[in-house]
Amino acid sequence: MKLNVNLGELSLKNPVMPASGCFGFGKEFSEFYDLNQLGAIVIKAATGEPRYGNETPRVAETAAGMLNAIGLQNPGVDGIIERELPFLESLDTPVIANVAGSTIEEYVMVAEKLSNVSTIEAIELNISCPNVKEGGIQFGTDPEVAQELTKEIKRVSGKPLFVKLSPNVADIVGMAKAVEHAGADGLSMINTLTGMRIDPHTKKPILANGTGGLSGPAIKPVAIRMIHQVRQITDLPIIGMGGITTTEDILEFILAGADAIAVGTANFQDPLVCKNLIDQLPNTLRKYGYESLQEVREARCTQVSI
Ligand SMILES: Cc1cc2nc3c(=O)[nH]c(=O)nc-3n(C[C@H](O)[C@H](O)[C@H](O)COP(=O)(O)O)c2cc1C
Question: Which residues form the active site (predicted)?
Fold first, then answer.
């Protein structure tokens, strides 16, 4: 069965990739299966300098997912280029670099450095992170800031740019329009939803950071709704994510309007999940009467306007 998909200039052999931050830089997972089977690999966020992340505890379980406040721990863009990318170079599968920062200058510097590396085929812009220098405005929640950042990155990067949208907004369509207008080549959605847990014994938040990002099956209906909304106003390729654990979930995301999907939290439960989803996808598509992935995309759900 034909599972290949084109995301603009990017050709994938199938629509399944690990989500940023849930697959490291791939090395550990290569001990479990051949990473060439993946549609693409999205690596952990890169920042200008190495970051050690937030204080522990920085992960907590929830009824249908997890909360994390890792705090963008990573070896910094130079460390990633020197120590992590050589391993990925030998793979015959596109590598997408996830870019983060605290200021526009940092984002631009990181995106430019990664864009100059031939191993990297696309950039994913993580705009759901800390504040701008002057204080207070989140990149992922203010459409004007998101637009400016997207424009600046397009100026220095020749690689396809996927902007990863935060669900922590009232108007996801407004955010999508803003970044499309600024030149985004695609969208990734969604990132985590801000959440919190409190320990009844100490009466304090369980995470040292206070709040964290909720991911896993709990957020899937939010992701489906947002992708469905955004698909109605744009033809940009969409990489969908949020709680995917089964091939039925993949089908649902594509029917909502995604072109490809990323699997995040499920990798922590089962390191083989991406491989298994790829292996099982043809059977699930057949079960629902499809002969190819393209047929699913054509059968997109368009009835509901939100
Ligand atoms: C532990 C952890 C670390 C993450 N790190 C990143 C990151 O570095 N950059 C990013 O854009 N998203 C990051 N995310 C968000 C995921 O890529 C994904 O968007 C989100 O978890 C929703 O998918 P899921 O429900 O399948 O996990 C992280 C998520 C988790 C759980």
Answer: 129 (nucleophile)
Q: How far does residue 18's CA lie from ligand 1's centre (Å)?
A: 10
Residue 295 Cα to ligand 1 middle (Å)? 29
With beta carbons less than 8 A apart as the criterion, state whether 99 and 107 touch: yes
Counting ligand 1 atoms within 8 A of each CB, the residue from 128, 187, 191 with the most, and so the one to mutate, is 191
Contacts of 123 (CB under 8 A, 6+ apart): 96, 97, 99, 111, 114, 115, 153, 157, 159, 160, 161, 162
- Find the distance separating the first CA and the last CA of the chain, reported in whole Å: 34
pLDDT by residue (tens digit) across 162-216? 999 999 999 999 999 999 999 999 999 999 999 999 999 999 999 999 999 999 9
Is 158 marked as binding a ligand?
Answer: no
Q: Quick one: DSSP state of residue 197? A: -
Q: In the chain, what are the domains? A: 5-299 (3.20.20.70)
129 is annotated as an active-site residue? yes
